[in-house]
Design goal:
This protein is mostly helical and about 150 residues long. Helices cover about 65% and strands about 0% of the residues. The chain is built from five helices and no strands. The longest helix is centred in the N-terminal third of the chain and has 22 residues. The model has no long low-confidence stretch (mean pLDDT about 85).
Length: about 150
């Protein structure tokens, strides 16, 4: 079963990514950029924002002009609701419950964005994503945040 995506949906998504990238790059310009040999705190965010804007522009530009009818129908808010609920849960749980619990909550809530959640995919995500977050942020970057509620 393949979902058909309207060219307008892809264009709108590309424009949103383009604008988000430009906003990130613009905000990064308020920090010192430094040089290639001595990068400042704004260098990487500016570069990442520009790359995001470039990808958004490519998505917007490369969408084929198919003669498909407009999407019509009802707007499916289920994915938007569950992904935003997952992000909100992560933000609210990070300090009191720690990175692992917050990331598990994010993964579980976001999994319900699919009409029929895949249990195997959910199980893998619930195990792998918190471990990757711990390795990257706590172990790798040494960020001062709780791993678990009791730590």
């Amino acid at each position: 079963m393949s979902a058909q995506v309207s060219p307008w949906s892809e264009r709108i998504g590309g424009v949103v990514i383009l604008l988000l990238g430009l906003a990130v790059a613009g905000q990064a310009m308020s920090y010192p950029l430094g040089t290639l040999n001595n990068m400042g705190p704004g260098f990487f965010p500016a570069l990442a924002g520009l790359a995001l804007a470039l990808f958004g522009g490519l998505i917007t530009w490369k969408v084929p002009d198919a003669d498909l009818p407009d999407e019509g129908g009802r707007l499916n808010i289920r994915p938007v609701f569950f992904v935003l609920a997952g992000i909100l849960a992560w933000a609210l749980l990070l300090r009191p419950a720690g990175l692992i619990v917050a990331t598990v909550a994010l993964s579980l809530l976001s999994a319900f964005a699919y009409p029929v959640p895949n249990l195997k995919r959910i199980a893998i995500t619930v195990v792998v994503l918190p471990i990757m977050g711990w390795v990257l942020f706590i172990y790798g970057l040494g960020m001062p945040m709780r791993t678990f509620p009791w730590s």
